[in-house]
Amino acid sequence: MNGPFKKLSEEKVFKDPVHRYIHVRDELIWKLVGTREFQRLRRVRQLGTTYVTFHGAEHTRFNHSLGVYEIMRRMVETIEEKENWDPEERLVCLSAALLHDVGHGPFSHSFEKVFHTDHEHWTREIILGNTEVNRVLKEISDAFPQKVADVIGKTYDNKLVISLISSQIDADRMDYLQRDAFYTGVSYGHFDMERILRVMRPTEDQAVFKYSGMHAVEDYIMSRYQMYWQVYFHPVTRSAEVILSKILHRAKHLYEAGYEFKDEPRHFKSLFSGSITLEDYLKLDEAVIMYYFQMWQEEDDPILKDLCDRFMDRRLFKYVECDPSTQMKIWPELLQLFKEADIDPSYYLVIDSSSDLPYDFYRGGEDEERLPIHLLMPGGELRELSRKSDVVEAISGKKRTDHKLYFPKDFLEDESTHKEIKQRIKTLLMTQGG
Ligand code: NI
Questions:
Q1: Which segments in the chain show pLDDT lower than 70?
Q2: Of the candidates 148, 159, 202, the residue with the CA atom closest to the CA atom of residue 371
Q3: How far, in Å, is the centroid of ligand 1 from the Cα of 237?
Q4: Full residue range of the structural domain in which residue 45 is found
Q5: How far is the CA of 166 from the centre of ligand 1 (A)?
Q6: Closest CA to 257 of 214, 312, 303
Q7: What spacing in Å lies between the alpha carbon of 299 and ligand 1's midpoint?
Q8: 262 C-alpha vs ligand 1 centroid, how far in Å?
Q9: Chain centre distance of CA 85
């Protein structure tokens, strides 16, 4: 094929431990993978600080993005067997799948919270701004980058396309569950994706699944539920994330207070002052962040130094479960005792909460991500999944939240100073732990 939808003269493949091979036939996709903005994803881990808990979890956003592309390629193939698609629509789907996470920065969760940035904003900027990605997309047509951005921003006209990339069962989730299970080595996260793709049927606004494949879909929902609680919300991972956020807070605070760093934090300057450009943003990756954390281990500020030592040497905070209702009562006393013991509670006493809604049925006015999954019954009618599946019904619409209180236990155990205060803190924390 000539013109903008050019095929490669020979198919290219990437070897992949999850999907075995990732097939690329379109010149557009091959060129997008080669852009500097996409290559940067090799330097951003998919699971942030999870590697401190599951040492195999070193895989990157690059791996995951290729995987989502591959699942989308197979979905599009299935749809093309059923209906005639405009060849450009196919490329919109593949490009959106490949680029859906291109705006992620290093340790996104903590970064976004501390600096109020948003990876979706950066994804748009990379697709629409002055970038290599934008130039490659424009070779299709001037309007093409906007179409890809609209799919990721969920404003695209074709709702079926949006649902393939962001819904309760989409290419993104199907890839990360399997990939994260593979790299962490856990036995959750597995389900029969081949079967799900085989029973998938396109409708006007979303993909539905033949009733005969219901158990494969059930398995997928359960694997997602288990992965959240066993891997994504693991309390040790969250401890590392708490420390990482506090490092960023401390460095920002010192910068604003005019502290003189031994090594000027050049890469952070525009971030600290809230005026970060796309060019600056693209220079931030996890290697850069780790470089600074190592430099800050040499700083004179005791809090910054201690937090960086903790992160680099994995001396994490311990935690107790906390019930927000009783915790509120002891909180003022705990803050006071921490101050009396010379442990700054704004860095060393942290409540972290995680919550997840494993599957939701329809509630009016909610966005596509919450579109319920529909089964296609033998008679041709559609039924919402939780009405047919007892397993899914049991966890539908149920939000589970977990609160933990993190603190440096080693500080409290060092009884060379403030022995009595520290003992009172420990007793208070024990009553929380239950
Ligand atoms: Ni993703």
A1: 1-2, 361-369, 433-434
A2: 159
A3: 19
A4: 7-232
A5: 9
A6: 303
A7: 36
A8: 37
A9: 31
Q: What is the dihedral of CA 95, 100, 104, 107, to 10 degrees?
A: -130
How many domains is the chain built from? 3
Q: Are residues 334 and 205 part of one domain?
A: no
Residue 379 lies in a domain: no
Can you give the pLDDT at residue 274? 87
Question: Which pLDDT belongs to residue 426?
Answer: 93
How many Å lie between the centroid of ligand 1 and the Cα of residue 51? 18
- Same domain flag for 81 and 170: yes
**CA 100 / ligand 1 centre spacing (Å):** 6
CB-based contact 164:75 (threshold 8 Å): yes
Residue 184: per-residue pLDDT: 97
Per-residue pLDDT, 430: 84
Strands of 48-152, DSSP E: none
Q: Do residues 76 and 207 share a domain?
A: yes
Q: What pTM, to 2 d.p., does this model score? A: 0.94
Dist. CA 282 → ligand 1 center (Å): 18
Domain boundary among 206, 232, 258: 232
Query: Of 310, 333, 348, which residue sits at a domain end?
Result: 310
Q: How far is the CA of 64 from the centre of ligand 1 (A)?
A: 7
Residue 140 lies in a domain: yes
CATH number of the domain bearing residue 89: 1.10.3210.10
Looking at residue 329, its pLDDT comes to 81
C-alpha 66 to ligand 1 mean position (Å):
10
Q: How far does the centroid of ligand 1 lie from the alpha carbon of residue 85, in Å?
A: 25
Residue 21 pairs with which residues in a beta bridge? Answer: 15
> How far away, in angstroms, is 67 Cα from ligand 1 center?
9
pLDDT at 2: 56
